[in-house]
Amino acid sequence: MTEQLKLKLNDSKATRWGALVIVAFTMMAAYYVNDVVAPLKTMLETDLAWSSTDFGFFTGGYSFLNVFFLMLIWGGLILDRFGIRFTGKLATILMVGGTALEYYAMTGLAGADATLFGVNEIFGYKTGVFVAFAGYSIFGVGAEVAGITVSKIIAKWFRGKELATAMGVQVALARIGSQAGYAVAIPMARALGLPSPVLLGLILLVGGLIAFFIFSVMDKKLDKQMEEAAIAAGTEGEEEKFSFKDVKNILVNPGFWLIALLCVLFYSCVFPFQKFASELMIIKYGINENVAGTFAGLPALGALILTPVFGGFIDKRGKSASIMILGAAMLIGVHFIYAIPAIDYWLVAIALMIILGIAFSLVPSAMWPAVAKIFPVSQLGTAYALIFFIQNIGLWGIPTLIGKVLDVYCIVGQKADGTNMYDYTIPMCIFTGIACLSLVVAFLLKRADKKYGYQLEEPNIQE
Ligand SMILES: C[C@H](N)C(=O)N[C@@H](CCCCN)C(=O)O
């Protein structure tokens, strides 16, 4: 009884938040790279002869390996088997390697006639497009596995502490990366050449890798302290391990399917939409090319400020299920108005982006902590990996579909520089339809909450 309680590294507020900032930097770099190519769609057409189909194919590449080669599932297994330090470093190395390949495709393999090993077409795509796709696919595996790893890191370092706030802050910091990507892409590409924003991403990711090595030193120390504490408490060997029984338990839970469905539908209307939004801003609303990316990135900027605010509200007041309904309803309004051909005033486009930013803060700040309410901590890593997996199906399929639809149904003319003019009405109707489905699922989730008692409407902090 007289034995003095030893303070662990994460018991110090400054150290645990310091650790969060270090891993959040890696994720910030990942979100920058994820979004930085999107505003360059038109330049890719003029400078590298990409079509909209090429762009959609490339954009869907982020999720290709995650979906068709089950990389998120393997990533989850590796995470549970080999731990956060190994998996985090591996994921970041994949992001660095993938981005380096993407950069090579945009420099060494630029243009329609570029050849690699004597071939200038792979699976019907220009070699440069295919190699960029391959690089972005490898990056996507790293980014998603890093995402679940960082969720697990936060759960480990903040358990019994400011867990929800820490998750909100990490997502908010990631949004800075996204917004930076959207804002700098076009001006930087114009000033320093098309691939330069990708090169900056590569440099940031190398910084992220160094950051992860620094975090690993801290985490190793924490593990040692936890082991000592567990030995002192006689609870050693009781760590959570991956088990196939957990997967079964998760899959039979209706809450899992409703959250996963809402996640894939909602995110399919945000991330893939943003990838095409810069061009929509330029073509339909006549917004200057240099700032179109900044406007397309507005939802990320709004979410940066609002996600922690809404997270705090949910912690104190609850209402998660109702907030997800509200976010989905706002999404319908935004995409529906974007779809109306007669409404083409630039201020409307910006106002809608701001509303999208509010919806993009409401749903994630309610959804991700809701997963933690539905599943016990021992199943959380697996539940996040499975939800990310289902979400990636949309992140692959929707941009691929929109790119194809643009090329087949939406070309309405050509600009002076020879690039296509597109009518975005059909793509926006597709996004509106998906948003309607997300609202239906949000209502079903609220009903399931009442039926199964997930307590989604209850506050997280009990007074
Ligand atoms: C794209 C990625 N799979 C994703 O869904 N990211 C979320 C944040 C998830 C945080 C989970 N603890 C996002 O809104 O960016």
Keywords:
463 residues; two-stranded antiparallel sheet; 79% helix
Can you offer a commentary on this structure?
The chain has one domain: MFS general substrate transporter like domains (Growth Hormone, Chain: A, Up-down Bundle). The chain is about 80% helix and about 0% strand. It contains 15 helices and four strands. The strands form two sheets. It has a two-stranded antiparallel ribbon with strand order 1-2. Helix 4 (about 70-105) crosses helix 14 (about 375-410). The structure holds the ligand C[C@H](N)C(=O)N[C@@H](CCCCN)C(=O)O. The ligand C[C@H](N)C(=O)N[C@@H](CCCCN)C(=O)O binds near residues 144, 171, 174 and 267. Ligand LXM4S7IT binds near residues 144, 147, 171, 388 and 391. Keywords: Lysosome, Membrane, Transmembrane, Transmembrane helix, Transport. It is found in: Lysosome membrane. Belongs to the major facilitator superfamily. This is Lysosomal dipeptide transporter MFSD1.
